[in-house]
Design brief:
The chain is built from 4 helices and 8 strands, in the order E-E-H-H-E-H-E-E-H-E-E-E. By secondary structure, the protein is of the alpha+beta class. The chain has one domain: 2-Layer Sandwich (Dna Ligase, domain 1), CATH 3.30.1490.20. A hairpin with an 8-residue loop joins strand 4 and strand 5 (89-93).
């Protein structure tokens, strides 16, 4: 189940989604919470973004390693295009063997998602800004969780 506060026709509406419903799940997988889509939207708005590449499940690991080394600087972060609370996020990656191990693990888990690989940021804090229209309603610090050590 997912509850969201959304703006529709200049009114705030609570939207309920039952992710067990196949049609709702299919719609959910196309847009809401997509880290790559959000990255691209912010980039198009000229908001600086961390260098990121998107990988398809069927891309060969050797090709992925080549792309990483040509386009990004270590250390790397690997994560899925969707997820919350640090699930399936791997930090401080520099070794090719470990990167391939994580890629294989994520590829075995996903069906439609893509894998994102980024340069690791040295940011100490992350904030969530809540907007309604163009008005900032709230700003709060996010706790950063990660399942890798």
């Amino acid at each position: 189940m997912r509850l969201e506060l959304v703006e529709r026709d200049n009114r705030l509406v609570i939207r309920f989604s039952d992710l067990r419903d196949k049609d709702v799940l299919n719609a959910y997988t196309k847009g809401v919470g997509n880290k790559w889509k959000n990255h691209r939207l912010l980039q198009e708005a000229n908001i600086p973004q961390i260098k990121t590449i998107k990988i398809k499940k069927d891309t060969d690991n050797t090709e992925i390693i080549k792309q990483i080394k040509n386009k990004l600087k270590p250390p790397y972060v690997i994560k899925l295009t969707r997820g919350m609370k640090g699930e399936d996020i791997y930090l401080n990656l520099t070794k090719t063997k470990k990167i391939k191990e994580i890629l294989n693990k994520l590829k075995a888990k996903i069906v439609y998602q893509r894998i994102l690989i980024q340069e690791q940021s040295n940011l100490k804090n992350e904030y969530r800004v809540v907007l309604i229209g163009k008005k900032i309603i709230s700003v709060f610090a996010k706790r950063i969780y990660c399942n890798s050590k």
